[in-house]
Amino acid sequence: MAWKFDPERPIYLQISERLTAEIVSGRWPAGTKVPTVRDLALDAGVNPNTAQRALSEMERDGYLETRRGDGRYVTERDSEVQRQRRETLARRSATFVGDMKALGFSDAEILEAAEFALKGDTSHE
Length: 125
Known about the structure:
- This protein has about 120 residues and is mainly alpha-helical.
- The chain has five helices and two strands, in the order αααββαα.
- Strands 1-2 form a two-stranded antiparallel ribbon.
- Strand 1 and strand 2 form a beta hairpin.
- The radius of gyration is 18 Å and the shape is globular.
């Protein structure tokens, strides 16, 4: 996977968010072994300390668990993954709505646009 970082945001957070998306989307199901700090750092082109911080944050947030002597894995606690999915949806939805309101769109316009987007209709005017 190609990594491109926003210089305005901490890199460890961007790594954590990207890996979290892999878990929340189901591309990394429960029990999936996560890349080692060294492998992640090499792949992302970052310092190992940055990769370690990203993985530690994910572990603190409940996405990952360490198996002593065997590395890190996506948590087996499905309820934790589902909770994180709901939190991600709520957080990203709030960001989207806030951005649209800042641009002057009404609640009705935002809802209508979201409905069209869910249907895959990008030609809505």
